[in-house]
Automatic annotation (TrEMBL):
Phylogenetic placement of the source organism: Eukaryota, Metazoa, Chordata, Craniata, Vertebrata
Keywords: Coiled coil
Protein name as it appears in the record: TNIP2 protein
Entry annotated with the keyword Protease: no
Cell membrane is among the record's keywords: no
Amino acid sequence: EVQKLNQQLEEKNGEIQQMINQPPYEKEREILRLQKTLAEREKAQATSDVLCRSLTDETHQLQRKLASTAEMCQHLAKCLEEKQRKEKGNSDDQIPTQRSNQVFLQLLYNETSLQALICNLQEENRMLKQKVAHV
């Protein structure tokens, strides 16, 4: 393993000597190439940071929506239970009540889906604007 490391060290020293022996314009070209590579990496890192921040924001937003939706569902379930307890004796009235509750829950689900879609589109729009500004 030591021999292997010594061999790698000798190769690196050879590369350094080769660069030292290069004409000045070659050195400048290599410096420019390395600067360009560094700039590209910094740009990629900045883009990655922006995407991570936007994903974090979106995650927090979705967690808040999920919590509020869960709270709303619990509230609706309690209301439904109370209604069913009150209408326990009227079996004829219970069928329309169940149907209206199903319709209400479906409307709530559709509204939540639309809100999630709108939020996703707004987030995508924001990200695209950031990319355009970056470019």
